Amino acid sequence: MLCVLTGMSLGMWMGAHQDFTMAPAHAHLNLLGFVAPSIMGTFYALAGDRAPMRLAWTNFVLSFGGVAILIPMLMKLLAGDNAIGPMMAVPELIVVAGMATLLLSIITVARAGGGSTARAATAPAE
């Protein structure tokens, strides 16, 4: 929630000042810090015990760790510090590794087989 509240506050500040220089940072913070983790959390909640906890925690650490490094660096870049550009690859790769971990979790759950517990719980009785 901290990421989305920060992103929303940044958006409000930009609107109030009519200065949209940080709009890419605002969008990245909301997308990578709230939307993507919400999707990840939904997957892990629905997968339950079928998703390995080690992968879930790795996914969490990589995703939020990457965002925590990426957004301040992106803001510096947008503020005109072009020297930071080449270093952006580090947090970008961390965030991509987080998403790759989610993909690995999805594949692991799919290979384990068995239907979704959520689907079974909401299926109409016959």
List keywords for this structure.
single chain; mainly alpha; 126 residues; elongated
Q: Kindly provide the radius of gyration, computed on alpha-carbon positions and rounded to a whole number of angstroms.
A: 18 Å
Shape: elongated
Number of DSSP helices?
Answer: 5
Largest sheet: none
Distance separating the two termini: 40 Å
Helix coverage percent:
over 70%
Mean pLDDT equals 90
Assembly state (oligomeric): single chain
- Tell me the strand percentage band: under 5%
By secondary-structure content and strand pairing, the structural class works out as mainly alpha
Instruction: Spell the H/E element sequence.
Output: HHHHH
Low-confidence stretches: none
Domain tally: 1
Number of strands: 0
Could you walk me through the main structural features you see in this protein, from its secondary elements to its overall organization?
Helix content is 77%, strand content 0%. With 126 residues, the chain is mainly α. The protein has one domain (2-113). The model has no long low-confidence stretch (mean pLDDT 90).
